[in-house]
């Protein structure tokens, strides 16, 4: 009799344990489903390019000769003036050295750019109005800046999964390529009130240049909705020269 009662009690506890295990497993699965849904939640790019140039609006297109004053999170400002845009098929035409390019893979030994791309370079004047940033060099009394390195086409900039952009392969005032494993290539120093004229370049697919305008983006390291744009080329791939 005692044996039967003990067996019954043991069976009862086993059932309770199994039910508890099943309940916990269901709870765990429910948590996993919740986290997976959070991980799968899509972040949709809602950036749209300004339609036209405007002197009265912050959200407008700029072109050669214009100045963009970009104010960073700490209310510190840097100015960018677009001076020139050049499209070329050979770096030698511009007096550039292959060794100064961050990406040299598309340059032939004679300086020719591979047939599917063209080199788009811009000359920009940068003025440090009052930017100190997070890594101000006290000894040299200069701020550490990184060149604005992104260009893009309308479709790539506005793509819901984007923005999809091209990064610069050339910067005239770059740090040594072997410094910090190349991570400082786009870095330069500029004191408050100082200005510098630089050249920045991209290898751009020729077919896209012939189909869409190309835009230089200011504020790339921030939020996409705060981007400001210089329009570099027109629909036919010609330079956007207002002169």
If you had to describe this structure to a student in words, what would you say it looks like?
- With 243 residues, the protein is an alpha+beta fold.
- The chain folds into two domains: 1-41; 61-231, Immunoglobulin-like.
- It is built from three helices and twelve strands.
- It has helices spanning 2-40, 154-158, 206-209; strands at residues 61-62, 67-71, 77-88, 117-128, 143-146, 150-153, 166-167, 170-171, 187-190, 195-205, 214-218, 228-231.
- The strands form three sheets. Strands 1-12-11-6-7 form a five-stranded mixed beta sheet. It has a five-stranded antiparallel beta sheet with strand order 2-3-4-10-8. A two-stranded antiparallel sheet has the order 5-9.
- A hairpin with a 5-residue loop joins strand 2 and strand 3.
- The protein is globular, with a radius of gyration of 28 Å.
Global geometry? globular
**Head-to-tail CA distance between termini:** 107 Å
Poorly predicted sequence stretches spanning 5 or more consecutive residues:
1-22
> Helix count?
3
Main sheet, how many strands, which sense, barrel? 5 strands, mixed
Fraction in helix: 10-25%
* Structure class: alpha+beta
Number of E strands: 12
Rg calculated over all Cα atoms: 28 Å
Task: Write down the overall mean pLDDT.
Answer: 84
CATH architecture of the largest domain: Sandwich
Strand content: 25-35%
Give the helices and strands as they follow along the chain. Answer: HEEEEEEHEEEEHEE
**Would you tell me which CATH topology of the largest domain applies?**
Immunoglobulin-like
Mind telling me the CATH class of the largest domain? Answer: Mainly Beta
In total, the number of domains comes to: 2
Order of the strands making up the biggest sheet: 1-12-11-6-7
């Amino acid at each position: 009799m005692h044996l039967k009662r003990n067996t019954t009690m043991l069976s009862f506890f086993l059932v309770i344990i199994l039910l508890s295990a099943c309940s916990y497993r269901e709870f765990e699965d429910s948590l996993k489903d919740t986290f997976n849904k959070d991980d799968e939640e899509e972040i949709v790019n809602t950036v749209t390019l300004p339609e036209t140039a405007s002197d009265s609006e912050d959200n407008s297109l700029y072109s050669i000769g214009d100045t963009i004053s970009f104010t960073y999170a700490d209310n510190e400002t840097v100015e960018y003036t677009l001076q020139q845009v050049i499209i070329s098929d050979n770096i030698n035409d511009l007096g550039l050295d292959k060794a100064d390019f961050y990406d040299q893979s598309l340059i032939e030994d004679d300086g020719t750019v591979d047939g599917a791309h063209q080199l788009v370079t811009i000359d920009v004047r940068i003025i440090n109005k009052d930017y100190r940033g997070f890594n101000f060099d006290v000894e040299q009394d200069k701020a550490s800046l990184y060149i604005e390195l992104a260009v893009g086409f309308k479709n790539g900039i506005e793509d819901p999964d984007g923005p999809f952009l091209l990064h610069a392969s050339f910067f005239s005032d770059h740090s040594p390529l072997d410094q910090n494993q190349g991570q400082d290539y786009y870095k330069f120093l500029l004191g408050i009130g100082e200005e510098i004229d630089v050249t920045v370049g991209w290898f751009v697919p020729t077919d896209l240049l012939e189909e869409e305008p190309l835009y230089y983006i200011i504020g790339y390291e921030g939020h996409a909705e705060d981007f400001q744009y210089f329009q570099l080329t027109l629909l036919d791939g010609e330079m956007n020269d207002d002169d």
